[in-house]
Specification:
The complex is a heterodimer.
Chain A: H1 4-15, H2 18-42, H3 48-63, H4 66-78, H5 81-86, H6 90-93, H7 96-121, H8 125-133, H9 138-168, H10 180-191, H11 194-223, H12 225-228, H13 232-238
Chain B: H1 2-24, E1 28-33, E2 36-37, E3 41-43, E4 49-50, H2 52-64, E5 67-72, H3 78-83, E6 89-90, H4 98-101, E7 105-111, E8 115-120, H5 124-128, E9 130-136, H6 140-150, E10 158-162, H7 166-175, E11 180-184, H8 187-196, E12 201-205, H9 206-213, E13 221-229, E14 237-241, H10 246-261, H11 264-273
Parallel strand pairs in B: 1-5, 1-6, 9-13, 10-11, 10-12
Antiparallel strand pairs in B: 2-3, 3-4, 6-14, 7-14, 8-12, 8-13
Helix pairs in contact in B: 2-10, 2-11
The chains are: A mainly alpha, B alpha/beta.
Chain lengths: 239, 281
Amino acid sequence: MIDFSFFLEILPKLLAGLPLTMELALTSIVAGFVLAVTLALAQQSESPFVVLPIRGFVAVFRGTPLLVQIFLTYYGLGQFRHQLSAIGLWAVFREPYWCAIIALTLNTTAYGSEILRGAIQSVPRGLVEAARSVGLSTYLTYRHVILPLAFRQALPSYGNEIILMIKGTSLASIVTLMEVTGIAQGLIAQTYRAFEVFICAGAIYLTLNFAIIRALAALEYWMSRHLRHRPSTMSDAAS
Amino acid sequence: MKISRIAAIASVLFGLVQAAVAQETPKAITIATEGAYAPWNFTTADGKLDGFEVDLANDLCGRMKIECKIVAQDWDGMIPALTVGKFDVIMASMFITEKRLKIIEFTQPYAVDPSGFAVAKDSELGKLGISNERFKLENEASAQAAIDKLKPLLKGKIIGVQAATANLEFVKKYFSDVAEIREYKTTEQHDLDLAAGRIDALFAQQTALAATLSKPEFSDYTLAGPGFVGGLFGLGSGAGIRKEDTKLKDMLNGAIDAATADGTIKTLSLKWLKSDVTPVK
């Protein structure tokens, strides 16, 4: 019933969509990370004029489906062509690629900033005070104490977010982008063999995510050296 | 003994011939339509059937000089109801397909809804305007010539087309070397993107495009170029009948020929569908 030569036939066709899938994921994850760090740091501010808009943004983008966000960015903003042309943004919103990148980036920024905000707050107050007591400036305290600890703390949750984004790119096919899922749907329309095609597409995502999970695990291992080899000098000093 | 058997067979045969003769000249037939596929066939607010196929059915009956009753029948039960004899003819924009031909018979197509382009009026292709020409993909030389004429006008343009349709197969086959093709889940989505200016052309059924272009948002857009039929687009819509009703098939075919020849199909189609769906011989 399941024809293995058919798998070999569709695999290269589906893999043709992998570069686009990875491009969408990588661009939005990198841009999203930069924005997430910025928003997480901005939220350490005491001013409600800074904090409240960010809270609003996060609430909206965490509280609505990614599918709706992509639809709104693409078809929704398409209605405001003239207004967007007037401010010179239509060139960006005209392209399905950039609309998908914008929606994916804003979505991951909202989740990422929450992960990092929590991680920054989890850095023990005593360490921050110790850093200030030896004369580090706010900038240096963040750079050498708070952020390294926060990133290490956030890594497992942020890894989850990265994997969710890889899978989120599969929604880009609704705005005509032919990434792996979009190609899969086209193949089904031609062959009527949904089972084989989706198994194959699923296997591509699984392999990609497996590689990412391993890479993140390696990063985590590297970042937690201190938990494995307690430097002997430290214990000497303590004794 | 032998003689009586021959006589028996003869009488059976005679009976069959008689039955066939009796069936040959139907005096009155019942035609079923769906009544829910405007503007092809639909039910008016006061419960009457109307539309392109209702007008055409009445016209064909007039030509055949038989009495017709037009009834509404749900789409999914249409073919079984025909085979058990609830009515005699289906005229419900039913495409003539291999699968259906296994169960019922069709007349020649009375409508072929050509596929064509819709573009902005001020684009190169738009300036060409609508052409009433129809190209049958089976006539490869003339169809290819028409395609080659369109190609330079669509060079570097973006064509929107619904996924999983014969229209997509067509543009992929003939235009993927000059234009970018974007696939949409629904026709509403490519309509929106044409209005937003993200794509330069739509390729779809001309009657569907005409319906879209009649909306005010699309006043700057027009149907352009010829229509394409046949080949991967199939045979078009025909009247469905039972396999054994060969005489009725001949009568209907004759009436469709006459209605094609004197331009009745064209007139009705322009009235209801805003484009010409007369089949190309």
